[in-house]
Specification:
CATH class of the largest domain: Alpha Beta
Distance between the termini: 70 Å
Helix content: 40-55%
Strand content: 15-25%
Shape: globular
Structural class: alpha+beta
Number of helices: 6
Number of domains: 2
Strand order of the largest sheet: 2-1-3-4
Largest sheet: 4 strands, mixed
Order of helices and strands: HHEHHEHEEH
CATH architecture of the largest domain: 3-Layer(aba) Sandwich
Oligomer: single chain
CATH topology of the largest domain: Glutaredoxin
Length: about 140
């Protein structure tokens, strides 16, 4: 095998690996795209007068990662389907604009879970972090 053939094979194998790896990333982001809101819209979305359960998370937080791993967001959405209640997740655990959002909303731990009602009432959730328990809280 000459140098060009070896280089071609290496590029082919690397490209195949990157494509497969990106496919996995794209698949998970497609599943999450309807419930993970853009951080620049956090404050605007919170102000909207609709009922919503909001998870303020940090990508580095172990408890937040467990929520994702346990499919709490997906299971909660399923339990609240047809109830006209949004399930939102905002990652506000990094610097920059996230610091401003955390200060304005007084978020000092992760995950912070809050229920926002149509009339503007905000109720923090401090219970068990399972879809069943959170759904019971939201529907009470």
């Amino acid at each position: 095998m000459n140098f060009l053939q070896a280089l071609g094979l290496t590029l082919f194998l690397t490209g195949t690996f990157l494509i497969k790896r990106n496919d996995k990333k794209n698949k998970s982001s497609r599943q999450a795209s309807y419930r993970v809101a853009k951080n620049k819209n956090v404050l605007e979305r919170i102000k909207q007068k609709d009922k919503k359960i909001v998870f303020f998370t940090a990508s580095w937080c172990g408890h937040c990662k467990k929520l994702e791993k346990d499919n709490v967001f997906l299971n909660l959405e399923e339990k609240l389907k047809g109830k006209n209640i949004s399930v939102l997740k905002f990652d506000v655990g990094n610097g920059g604009e996230h610091v401003i959002v955390r200060k304005k909303l007084k978020i000092d731990s992760f995950p912070t879970i809050r229920l926002y009602s149509e009339n503007g009432t905000v109720v923090p959730y401090d219970g068990e972090r399972t879809a069943d328990k959170i759904a019971n809280f939201v529907l009470a």
